[in-house]
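$ ./design --mode recover --in tokens.txt
reading tokens...
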């Protein structure tokens, strides 16, 4: 089953899509600022492993015109929380164990949202991004197991993660991806281990 989902905001419409197999083993919320081709591959690979995948854009077309739109962590976190609240009341998604995938500028917002919805979000995977921008309070409160993936040359992201580790009380792991490594494999393994399925 495929569903298109639209959320209205004061700054324009946000668009998403839910791909749900008949008997999903869990729900993965893939949060992004805009469409990138890799997301299509990631969604297909996770769906092939039996997950329902909800891909949601967190910025409207209007907001994407501004270069700094992806730097507004509070707004992006609030958008993610709105999505989590919608999931909690959606018959196709509400009963599935939930994990979040985020990357780049969405990473700190994902940490904030997961920290505020600790009973709902069971695992988080972030690919790059400056995790310490989530803020000390969110890092302290995060309980969902966190996997941080880094590209081999992402020194800035790894430095950010090192700054954050002293505040992380949840299970957390860091993994550097090889140049030819498929990032979906460690992502799927992490969710399989921590979504309670």
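writing sequence...
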């Amino acid at each position: 089953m495929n569903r298109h989902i639209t959320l209205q905001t004061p700054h324009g419409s946000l668009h998403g899509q839910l791909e749900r197999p008949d008997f999903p083993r869990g729900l993965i919320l893939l949060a992004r600022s805009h469409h990138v081709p890799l997301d299509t591959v990631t969604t297909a690979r996770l769906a092939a492993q039996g997950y329902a995948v909800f891909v949601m854009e967190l910025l409207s077309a209007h907001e994407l015109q501004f270069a700094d739109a992806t730097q507004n962590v509070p707004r992006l976190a609030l958008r993610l929380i709105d999505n989590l609240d919608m999931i909690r009341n959606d018959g196709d998604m509400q009963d599935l164990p939930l994990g979040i995938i985020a990357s780049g500028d969405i990473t700190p917002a994902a940490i904030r949202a997961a920290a505020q919805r600790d009973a709902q979000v069971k695992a988080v995977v972030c690919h790059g991004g400056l995790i310490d921008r989530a803020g000390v309070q969110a890092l302290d409160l995060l309980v969902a197991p966190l996997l941080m993936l880094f590209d081999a040359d992402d020194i800035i992201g790894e430095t950010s993660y090192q700054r954050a580790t002293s505040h992380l009380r949840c299970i957390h792991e860091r993994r550097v991806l090889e140049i030819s490594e498929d990032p979906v494999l460690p992502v799927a393994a992490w969710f399989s281990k921590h979504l309670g399925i």
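exit 0
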